[in-house]
Design a protein that fits this description.
CATH architecture: 2-Layer Sandwich
Largest sheet: 5 strands, antiparallel
Strand content: 35-45%
Helix content: 25-40%
Structural class: alpha+beta
Order of helices and strands: HEEHEEEH
Number of domains: 1
Shape: globular
Number of helices: 3
């Protein structure tokens, strides 16, 4: 026996079909907290998940690190929230000249290049 959608001739989405990713990046606010500790607040619409807005914050951190004359950053924490389709992330990174200790480190030059290639804005 066919289900109601099949009986009505409705087409069910194929496995793997996804809505197109159409991000709207809506700004980056940067705040130096203390010496090498920096906060990045970013906003966007059209994110698929919190990972998209976290990536936007990481791109901001990478470019900011280069602007300050450093080569590396270490992720401290990211808080993500979504309200009415507006995604926001409040991320904190430390920046340094040499590769910092820790698991969540980024090479600012490599990360910035990947962000530009992906079309994600930076600072």
């Amino acid at each position: 026996m066919a289900d109601a959608a099949s009986a009505a001739g409705a087409q069910m989405p194929e496995a793997g079909d996804e809505a197109p990713f159409d991000p709207k990046y809506q700004g980056i606010e940067t705040r130096l907290l203390d010496g090498d500790l920096v906060s990045f607040n970013v906003r966007m619409r059209g994110a698929r998940t919190g990972e998209d807005v976290s990536r936007y914050a990481e791109c901001a951190a990478a470019q900011y690190t280069l602007i300050r004359g450093y080569g590396f950053a270490r992720h401290v924490r990211t808080k993500v929230a979504e309200t009415g389709g507006l995604w926001q992330a409040d991320a904190v990174y430390t920046i340094s000249e040499s590769l910092p200790k820790g698991f969540k480190t980024i090479d600012a030059e490599v990360t910035t290049a990947a962000c530009v290639e992906s079309g994600i804005p930076t600072v």
